[in-house]
Specification:
single chain, 5 helices, 5 strands, 42% helix
Length: 151
């Protein structure tokens, strides 16, 4: 079981991605901004960090810079997700648009863990919409709808 630090200031997305990662059999640590994430990473050293780009107190880009500067955390792979175009930041191994399908999110997480030498448990399972809670299904639908409307 891999430990993934998930960072997002939007509670609904944090809940959705947490559910998906737990269904993938990962342990999830959660943070609402980069400052909180850095503290958790320093205490728990996750196998992977999945962070939003724009957040209060400390942005995802600044979080990436701080992780790369820390000798104990510089090798932790990072996935950046954002509603914006592909933001570049130090240490980022993959970028995911918030408009990505959940199956793409799963694939990028698995591939990043494999590339870093941490193997995900079991083969990819595909979309989980039937297994998600009602609120997470609604969040997934709202994200898909917003992305199709170009927002």
């Amino acid at each position: 079981m891999s430990t993934i630090l998930l960072v997002d200031d939007e509670p609904e997305l944090l809940d959705l991605y947490t559910e998906v990662l737990e269904l993938m059999d990962h342990r999830v640590l959660r943070a609402h901004d980069g400052r909180e994430a850095l503290e958790i990473a320093q205490e728990r050293r996750p196998d992977l960090v999945v962070t939003d780009w724009q957040m209060p107190r400390m942005s995802g880009v600044e979080l990436c810079q701080r992780l790369v500067q820390d000798e104990h955390l510089r090798d932790v792979p990072i996935i950046m997700h954002s509603a914006a175009t592909d933001p570049h930041a130090p240490g980022v191994k993959a970028f995911l648009s918030k408009c990505s399908e959940l199956s793409e999110f799963e694939e990028v997480v698995n591939q990043t863990l494999i590339a870093s030498g941490v193997y995900p448990r079991g083969p990819p399972r595909g979309p989980y919409l039937d297994e998600l809670s009602g609120s997470s299904r609604e969040t997934a639908w709202e994200c898909e709808h917003a992305c199709s409307m170009g927002q």
